[in-house]
Structure formats: structure tokens, C-alpha cells
Amino acid sequence: MTFLHNLLVTILLLGLLCTLGRAAAVDLSLEQHQDRAAASKEEKRDWWQVAQFYQIYPRSFKDSDGDGVGDIQGIISKLDYLKEIGVTATWLSPIFTSPMVDFGYDISDFFDIQPEYGTLDDFDQLVAEAKKRNIKIILDFVPNHSSDENEWFKKSVKREKGYEDYYMWHDGYVNSNTGQREPPSNWLSGFRGSAWEWNEKRQQYYLHQFAVKQPDLNYRNPLVVAQMKRVLTYWLDRGVAGFRMDAVAWCFESLPDANGRYPDEPLSGTTDDPDNEAYLKHIHTQDLRETVEMVFQWKTLLDDYQRVHGGDTRIIMVETYSELDYVMQFYGNRTAKGAEIPFNFQFIVGGNGVKDNTKLPAGGFVKIINSWLGQMPSGKTANWVMGNHDRSRVGTRFGEDRIDLMNMLQMFLPGVSITYQGEELGMTDLDISWEDSRDPAGCNSNADIYDQFSRDPVRTPFHWSNEANAGFSTSSSTWLPINPNYQTINVKTENASTTSHLSLYKQLTQLRQLKTLQLGATRYANVGDNVLAIKRSLSGEATLVLVANVLETKVTGVDVAGPLYASGNYKIKVSNPQAKATVGDSVTLSSLTLEPYAALILESV
To answer: Which of 71, 319, 423, 494 is the catalytic position?
Structure first.
């Protein structure tokens, strides 16, 4: 009887625990997993795991010579600013020699600098000056394609020995009805239209998954693989700390069949525009396993370089907007080391492809956070990317009232934080006219639809001051127009204010030095539609809690203590202006009042 009694009690307790587990906003097993990963407060983190990354788009950062275009000397002149705001590593969009059809992503010489940006000597000076300030330089590596003005492509067109198959060439097919030659497959370019272009001199089609002047390299050719490894080694020799790998998902394509025919891709059903890349499902041109394995090879090269030359870990950051199960493969596995930072774009695409998140409720935030932390392999480091040079700015996408809230969230979550230039100021998108458009993604369409594709609105020059051209350039004109809101949204003005976006950003980069945020376990929950709550805890250290009202309605009597399993007394450590709160004041986690878009970081007493 005693045995049956104890068994019954055990079953009832297990049932109760299961019910409580389902009631919690976040599965307890996730926090337990993170507790194990965040072992002791003495655990050593590699430099990149606690770095504050900052993306610079060189054309738009700072112009030093008055030509209206940003350059390397301009970056050097602002390194003290980067150090001041807590940046410890910066990755630069491409600065290599280029015809600038895609503003540096069409590279004609992978071993030199675009003259309007500077020289190799300027680059060496940048690395040296950054090192003095303990800032590491990460370069944008563009592996998928080159410019058609690259010597490799010119030699391939002429079928010179060793370069015959450097790129993706094909005869195409003659239409039996029309007698006209047609492309090898229905594959589409990311910049509209067919991804195949006829070359008269070679009398074949070449593949270009982006602009016509960006032919795809052939990674099934070992000579290409070896060449690109030489490129990586060349820049490692010049002192870079790693690479951000651009458009990685496109590096490999499906092989042709036994008859030499490339397979057509199926219709997606998402658009009726046959020139839009979204017209097809890219099952043959993106996300192939061979691409992941190529990243593993690059990581092996970087690790071997470190073993031979010493110094800190050289890292890989991978750009891909693929499905998460594919993205996670880039982290590596038991037999192969992968990228340290496969970019987490969940806050950019909204977790489900939504581009406008100005009305996203707290449950949507939890879904986005969980989408990454719930799938990330054990022992890996999370990363959070809110914006970049390709996607709408945070203040435009999530709403200007949420700018500080989003920066607070990014800095508070576990792992690596990556800021796109200007997000610390609260810069927003600028509507660019058709006449002023420069981005091929938009210019390859037409005046009626270009704004759906153009990336120009997020690439406008940086705001240094409220003086002419926002202090970006002394030129009478700049390569892209400057947002008129620079009069109030700029470094000079915001540095003079204790309640500015920039002031708060600097507080947050300091806060990230705390062991709790570097090593602590994480629990997160939403309380209704309004409130997002996150707890970071570490044995022997103060517990930190972020609470944010993500909507435009005030809430009262909010209990976050239960969902977060948090107890004890708390005081306000950081707040945004919307909170109308005083740092140092005590708060009760079981009964909070939060103004619209208020965000607080609380510390246990």
C-alpha cells in the first residue's frame, strides 16, 4: 500500500509540474540548458563573445577629402568616437577595387583598395590606429562573385588555360519553335530578370545571381577555392581579425543532369512578377550543403593561421537569410568547426517575414527571441542583429518610439551585439527619389516600383553634427542625399544631452561589461500583449531584469515576478525617457506601472 501511495503522489506531482511548465511563458528546459552553458562567473570568454560589433558602410561614414564619398581616412578620424561609444570591433562593407556597380560588392581586384576610399597604406594605418584603441577590424569578404572587370573573368572569357571554368558557363539551348538561343535554366537574379547573360566573345551564357556585371565564381573548381583562400590569407597578413562572409547562401548551385541541363526552379506562388527573384523557390541556387562545408574550410584556414602566427581568434561572420535549420549548420558540428557568428536576422525579418513591426506585440518579441535560442546548438554563442546596410533601419521598422527600447533589448540579450552605423543615434530611413536612386536593386526596376527594392534609404550619410551636410562632407553634394532630420539627430547634439539615444547607447555598452550579462542564464516571457520581460542571472552576481512596454497603451499592476521566477527587491539601473522613471528608485516586480514604450533595466538589491 505504501508503494502504491508513493507512486500515486509521484504521478500527481509530475502532473502538477507539467502543468506549471506549460503555464510558464518559456519552457524551463531552455533556461536549464542555458544554465549549463553559463557555468561559473569565472568562465573565460573569447574576445568576440563579449565584443561590441559595429558595422561601417564606408561610403556613408565620413568623407575626409571633400568628394562627397566616405573613405578610410574618414574612418580613421572617427576611431576615437567608436572607442567612446564602446565599440571593440568593426566590420567594413567592401573597400576593394571595384567599378562600383553594386558599390563594392562587384570586386575587380580582391587584393587592393578602391581609390576613392584610399590606398593599401591607408588601410594599414587604419588597422594600426584601431589596434591602439583595442578595436579590431573585420573585412567584408565577397565569395560568390566578382566584377566582370576582374582579370579572372577576362581570362575566362578568352578561355585562357586555368581560367576556362573559373565562372559558371553554359551554351544554353536553341528553342525549336523560334530558333532563338535561350538561357540554360529559368534561374532569376536577385536584381531582377534572368540570372544568365550571353557573352558574345565566348559565345556562352554566364551565371550572375546579382547584377549582370557580377558573374558567379565556380566553387566546384578547386582552382577557385584555392584562389579565394589566397585572398583570405592576404588580408590576414595585413592584420584583420576576421571576415564577414557576404551572400554565402549563393556560393553553390545544383549540378546539371546527365544531359548537361541545369534544373529549373519551381514557382513560389508568392508573386506574379516573373522578373522578381521571389517568383521562384530557390532550391537549386541557394542553401546547398556544399556551401556550409566551404565555410568549414575557411574556418580551418583561419584557425591554422592563428596557430602559425599567434594572436587572437580570427572569426567568421556569415550572412544568410535562409531558414533557421540551415543557418544553424554554419555553427559547425562535432567533426568540423564553423562560423563563430552566423548572423541572426530574426529581428530584421520579424521571425516570419514581416518587414513592418511597428505594431509587434510582446508575444511577437518572445517568438523572435525563442526562434534563435530555441534552435541554437548547445555551447554556441547567440548574436543579435537589428539592422544593416540592406534592410530598413530599426527606427523605421519598429517605430521611432521603440528606438531606445530596441537598443536596450539588443544589449541585454545573451551573446554578441552588432550595431549598424547610426542606430545608436536613432537614424531613420530617408525616402529617396527615383532621380537620386543609386542602388542597382532599385534602378533595375522602374520609377513605379523601385522603392520596393532599393536599399538607398538605409545607406544615407552618417550624421556627425547639425552643420552643413551633417558634418559628413565638405562637398557641395554627397553621393546620396542626407536625411533632413540630421539637425537634431546627430552625434554633436546627442552627446550634449543626457536623455538622447546616444547617451543611452553608451550606458548600455558599459552595462554589457557586467558578468551577469556576459555569462548569465536567461529567462524571458511576455505578460499580455504589452510587456516583454527578460531576466539575466548568475550565481554570486546581481540579477538584472529588463521590462518593456512595447505598445502605445499604458499598463498598471503588471506582475513579471511570477513568469520570470524572480524574487527580492529591485531598483532601476537604466531607463529610457518614455519610462518617466528615476534611476535608483525601488520597484516591485509583482506590480509594475509602465508608460507607453517604457523600458527599464532593473538590478536586484
So the answer is: 319
